[in-house]
Every structure is written in structure tokens, then in C-alpha cells.
Design a protein that fits this description.
Number of strands: 2
Largest sheet: 2 strands, antiparallel
Strand order of the largest sheet: 1-2
Strand content: under 5%
Mean pLDDT: 87
Helix content: 55-70%
């Protein structure tokens, strides 16, 4: 069926309506917020472009149109509802000016969602032309070996000057390889593989628990559930979905208690973990959950501050953030005097008044905020379109080079480019994606040289 370019304009209807009704910020906000669910529907119902039919949904969930869109857009555009409800629930005149600002942010969110999906669908072409294949009977063992090998390599790369950019990619790849190997070993009833991969997974999960961050814990459970789903659909649906809901309920309490003990009181991580677990199981401090949902689940409050300052007090940055993103890619070993990425990013945070100079707080802007700072609504449109297009093209390249979805997307793309699930400032994104792509090409050459991958 021929789908003309005019179909893509349907994705922008919520943004246009929300903008036209901006005089009523409450109405504008809810049109924008519900607009993201409309875009989800238009995308997954195939109204703009048919969804890939080469695999069932459960067998291709790690492709960008599914996992990246759901997590990235869900976090960016859908979590602000708690913040907005909090604003309109209190009869506090000091909050009145926040309501139109939040509505304006949501307009940018739905515009960014539409542009992101446009980028993905415009570049989406399935089935991918596979250029390499492999012996599937060897896959389970290869995954386990990758998990074991990549872990020490990631640690080593973090200690060698000039190679630190490979640390996150290799450690993430080790986690994904081990989790995928575990999901393979369980249904195949390979006891040795299951024991080794189970140990690796348990180790990674414990490291997530004592990291002081919620995201690694959620990702650990989510990824295992996704990988097990094709073999155990009913069990995963019954166990993992409620488990993820419970994590969202109790993690704020666990994390707050852990950070208080480990970071503020300098307690041993094991002691902090035990104290946090005990407080969570005894439901101590669950009143903090609403504050978490309002101010920490979403980054909309920070976005409102940037909107207040730009362009009224600080002019749009134009292409300067893109230029800084190119600087961030260059390894420091080749450019010893290269500006520190963290400091470059924090300059615009200080200029906007999000935090004060000298503060120990790190408040890096989200990807869409950098798009806005670069050029308002046009910056959001172009940057989010580029985001969708790039992740889709890289995902398809991974399938092409690694013999299809399972190795190419579920392992290589997801492991090396997990940063695109969440999104960060331009500079951090460019560095991670560029070197992730280089790492992908290196791994491909190694697998070809080891005769695991063969030219079709």
C-alpha cells in the first residue's frame, strides 16, 4: 500500500491543536499529553507506515520503533502528568505562572515525539538485507563468552587513557550478552551455561542495587523479561509486569535510604543496601513516592526554567551545541587540552539559572532541551527527527552486519547503544553513539576473523 508523505503530517495534529489553544494552558497541556498516546496508536496501528512483519512483535521488541520509542518517549513526554496534576491541585498563586510553562514544555514534547517517529518511520526498511550469517547452534556459547570477555575489557578500558569512551559500551554489552545467554540457556536446559550466566546476571543486578541509581535496577529486570518473553510468554506477563510496577512503587524509598547511608553518611555499600532494603520492606518513608513522581520521574520542571531564560535572557545557541558535540567525540589522547565535556554542558545550566555555579549538583539538560536551546520549536523538530533517523539506521546496519535481529539488535544495538533509550545532552550522546558505532564495527571484524560470521 502506497503511503504518501502527507501521512506523516497526521503525527503533528496534536502539536498544532495544542499550540492554537495555548491561551488555555490546562487544555493545551492535556491535548499535548494525550497527543503522545495518539502518536503511539498511529505508529503501531500502521496508519503512517506498516509495522515490520518479518517477526512477531514479541520477537522484535528491541527494535527502535518499539523499545526506544516506548522508553525514550515514555520518560520524556508521558511522565510529566504527575508534575502537572500537582500544579493544578494546589490553590497556590505562586504556582500559577508554572502552569502555562508546563503546558508549553508539553507542546515541545509532543512535537519532539512526532519528529522522532517521523525520523524512525522515514528510514525504516524491513526486512533488512542480511550480508552475514552464523551458525545458530554456536550462539548460546558465543554469547556467554562475550559476556565473560567484555567485562574485564570494560574495566581495562576505563583505566587506560584515551580508551575510557569504550567503558560504558563494553560493560553494557557484557550485561546484555550475559542476560541474553541466560535467556537462551534456561529453555535449552543447559545447566552449566545457566549457572554461569545466572551468576553473571546476579552480580550485575547486585551492582545495580548498590549503584545508587534506579535506572540500572529497572533495566536489569526489564531486559531479562524481554529476552525470556518469546519462550515464556505467560510467565513473563504474570511475573515481570507486576514486578516492574512494584519497583516503581518501592524504588524511590529504597534509593533515598541507600543514598542517605552510602553517600551522605559514608556507610559501606553493603550496609547501605541492607538498611535500604529493610526500610523498603517495612514500608518506611513511602510518603516520598509522590515527590519522586512529581519532581524526579520527569524533567519537565527543569525544562520550564530553560524556557524562562531562553531566548528572553540567553539567546538561542544555534549550531554551537552541535559544534561542541563534535569536540566531545575527539579522544583526549589526541587533544590533551580538549574542553571537559561536563563543564561545557554545565555552562548552559548555570546561564539558565537551573543551579548556581559552584554547586555540587549535576543537572545536565535532556536531549530535547538542547534541541530547544539550539533553536526553539525548529531546533526540537530537527534534533528529534535526526535522533529517530540515526537510531533506526544504526539498528538496521547492526542487523545487516550481524546476521539479523537476534545478534544484531537484541545484543549489539541494545548493548552498545542503550544510551538512546534515555537520551542525554548533545555532547554525551554524540560521543557515546559515535564510539558505539566504532565498537560495533570492531566487534564485527573480530567475529568475521574468528569465522563465526560468514558472508552470505
Amino acid at each position: 500500500m502506497n503511503r504518501g508523505l502527507e501521512r506523516y503530517l497526521l503525527l503533528y495534529i496534536p502539536w498544532v491543536l495544542a499550540y492554537l489553544l495555548r491561551a488555555d494552558p490546562v487544555m493545551s497541556y492535556f491535548i499535548s499529553w494525550l497527543g503522545s498516546f495518539y502518536i503511539f496508536y498511529m505508529c503501531y496501528a500502521g496508519k503512517i507506515k506498516p509495522m515490520p512483519k518479518d517477526l512477531s512483535v514479541g520477537e522484535q521488541i528491541m527494535r527502535p520503533v518499539y523499545i526506544v520509542q516506548i522508553i525514550f518517549i515514555g520518560y520524556m513526554a508521558c511522565t510529566s502528568i504527575f508534575y502537572f496534576i500537582n500544579l493544578i491541585s494546589y490553590q497556590d498563586l505562586s504556582l500559577d505562572d508554572k502552569i502555562p510553562l508546563a503546558a508549553q514544555c508539553q507542546q515541545y514534547y509532543v512535537l519532539g515525539h512526532a519528529a522522532f517517529v517521523t525520523g524512525i518511520l522515514a528510514c525504516m526498511k524491513y526486512p533488512v538485507e542480511i550480508k552475514y550469517t552464523y551458525d545458530k547452534s554456536r550462539l548460546a556459547n558465543v554469547l556467554m563468552v562475550m559476556a565473560i570477555v567484555c567485562l574485564p575489557l570494560s574495566i581495562l578500558s576505563n583505566k587506560i587513557p584515551g580508551l575510557s569512551q569504550f567503558y560504558i559500551q563494553l560493560s553494557s554489552l557484557s550485561f546484555f550478552a550475559g542476560t541474553l545467554a541466560l535467556a537462551f540457556a534456561i529453555p535449552l536446559q543447559k545447566l552449566a551455561n545457566t549457572a554461569i550466566c545466572g551468576f553473571l546476571y546476579a552480580t550485575n543486578f547486585y551492582q545495580a542495587l548498590v549503584s545508587g541509581f534506579k535506572e540500572p535496577i529497572i533495566i536489569s529486570i526489564l531486559v531479562l523479561g524481554i529476552f525470556l518473553y518469546p519462550s515464556y510468554k505467560r510467565t513473563v506477563s504474570v511475573v515481570f509486569i507486576p514486578l516492574l510496577i512494584l519497583l516503581f512503587v518501592y524504588l524511590p524509598t529504597y534509593n533515598q535510604v541507600f543514598r542517605q547511608n552510602a553517600w551522605a553518611d559514608n556507610a559501606d555499600s553493603d550496609e547501605a543496601y541492607e538498611a535500604a532494603l529493610d526500610a523498603t520492606l517495612n514500608a518506611e518513608g513511602t510518603s516520598n513516592n509522590w515527590d519522586f513522581l512529581v519532581y524526579r520521574l520527569s524533567e519537565v520542571d527543569m525544562f520550564t526554567t530553560f524556557i524562562q531564560s531562553t531566548p528572553e535572557k540567553v539567546d538561542y545557541y544555534g549550531l554551537s551545541l552541535v559544534q561542541q558535540s563534535v569536540y566531545a567525540i575527539v579522544p583526549r589522547i589526541f587533544w590533551p587540552s580538549k574542553p571537559i565535556t561536563e563543564e561545557m554542558v554545565m555552562e548552559r545550566v548555570y546561564d539558565a539559572g537551573v543551579v548556581y555555579r559552584g554547586s555540587a549538583v549535576s543537572a545536565k539538560p535532556a536531549y530535547i532541551v538542547d534541541g530547544y536551546l539550539s533553536g526553539g520549536w525548529l531546533g526540537v523538530l530537527l534534533s528529534l527527527f535526526a535522533y529517530g533517523a540515526v537510531v533506526q539506521l544504526i539498528s538496521q546496519k547492526a542487523e545487516e552486519l550481524f546476521g539479523g535481529y537476534l545478534l544484531g539488535v537484541a545484543l549489539i544495538f541494545s548493548g552498545l547503544f542503550q544510551i538512546v533509550w534515555r537520551g542525554l545532552s548533545f555532547e554525551f550522546m554524540s560521543n557515546s553513539v559515535f564510539w558505539g558505532f566504532i565498537t560495533m564495527l570492531i566487534i564485527h571484524r573480530i567475529m568475521v576473523g574468528a569465522n563465526f560470521l560468514r558472508r552470505v
